[in-house]
Design a protein that fits this description.
Blueprint: E1 2-6, H1 11-22, E2 26-31, H2 41-44, E3 48-51, E4 69-72, H3 84-99, E5 106-112, H4 121-133, E6 139-145, E7 148-149, H5 154-165, E8 168-172, E9 178-179, E10 182-183, H6 184-193, E11 203-207, E12 213-214, H7 215-226, E13 231-235, H8 240-250, H9 255-265, H10 275-280, H11 287-299, E14 332-339, H12 343-351, H13 363-375, E15 396-397, E16 400-406, E17 411-416, E18 422-430, E19 435-444, H14 446-455, H15 457-472
Parallel strand pairs: 1-2, 1-4, 2-3, 4-5, 5-6, 6-11, 7-10, 8-13
Antiparallel strand pairs: 9-12, 14-19, 15-16, 16-17, 17-18, 18-19
Length: 474
Amino acid sequence: MKILLTGANGYIGMRLLPQLLDKGHEVVCAVRDRKRLSVDPETLSRVSIVEVDFLDDYKPNLMPADIEAAYYLIHSMSSSTTDFDEKEAVSAQTFNRYMKDTQVQQVIYLSGIVNDKDLSKHLRSRKNVEDILYQGDFNVTVLRAGIIVGSGSSSFEIIRDLCEKLPIMITPKWVLTKTQPIAIRDVINFLTGVLGNEKTYNDSFDIGGPEVLTYKAMLEQYAKVRGFKVAIYTVPVMTPKLSSYWLYFVTSTSYKLAMNLVDSMKMEVVAKDNRLQQILGIAPHTYTEAIKMAFVKIEQNLVISSWKDSMVSGRMSKNLKKFIQVPKYGVLKDEQQIKVDDPDRVLERIWKIGGDTGWYYANWLWKIRGILDKFTGGVGLRRGRTHPDRIYAGDSLDFWRVLLADKKNKRLLLFAEMKLPGEAWLEFKIDENNVLHQTATFRPRGLKGRLYWYSIVPFHFFIFGGMIRNIAKT
């Protein structure tokens, strides 16, 4: 079957793609930027790519006409605290228009559980998208999920951050709200199970794990699985805005996502039926099983996708191409170079930079810079990196975004997502003479930007000099 996979470089899409390929399907990945499709060369050779932004105007003859089924995995909750619902409606309407150019028979949409009459803005938006998709000239299958638990999911990473960092928590009262978590493995099984299944056409199904838990119970069970205890005390006076700041500073989530999550966490998200389990014969895993499965992936460095690599986790434009040409004029630079004896070994060290590896020199200064950035509303060092030794264009790397990761030509280019009075690039390149070039480029914004650069020049002397020397060591 020829399948259109929208949101192919998102958290769910990256998990779903290999499963569809393994089942023998022909997959067309719909992405805004083909360079953002963070898959290995073998997988890339097995898919075709359509560059499309569903927030832009419709472009005729863009979609392959022989599409038979499509997954709609586009969400905008993390991109805004105000108009994400409008963006999601526009995306769905544009998607319907594109589908008129194809032979699509079924569209599968992953939504949120919307059984409560008093819905959050996030869940109202998801329900509105359902209604728009049902207006299309195709059969619709909607899967409604609550909290998704898996390595790299935003919900799991927030729980992980809270429990690992705070043995004692003063929490808002929404931690007593009930929800029904589901393992990412089960979500993927449901998504593939309904494909081409006429029993699921033009219907919406709740999917959830076997347990209904409060967020407090989820935190406590996580700690138990990990072998430690947490003390959780709830207070009734923490406002939604204060709760959002609490999540933002303690966890790796962005402030926009924190705001929308807090809004949703006030509502019970509990599945009302298990019809789809019976139709497909799927028995979902328990919450503790989901945690254990997540850590198997983490400990083996097999995390396929992470929400932190989405563009909305930082302040990066959705278009990487805008920044990939490093400016030459009106900029300030710190340039370092050193001859290396073993370029392949040095390249491996470059490819491991950031995250748990650190920045090879004065990591404590990098950490201070990350703390300062977060207190000014930036991303800080909270995101780390998804893979310990693999980098793809579009990945987050601490407070940087990967613009180019060309191992063949021995070049890595990063763009700063920290709060700055200007724009900054950091580039590593090994030339044909085995000389490592390390270049920090800063395009200041007005006088403030120039004052910022010159104020940190003394730190550059030590940090960048020490960094290139340590990278070059073999």
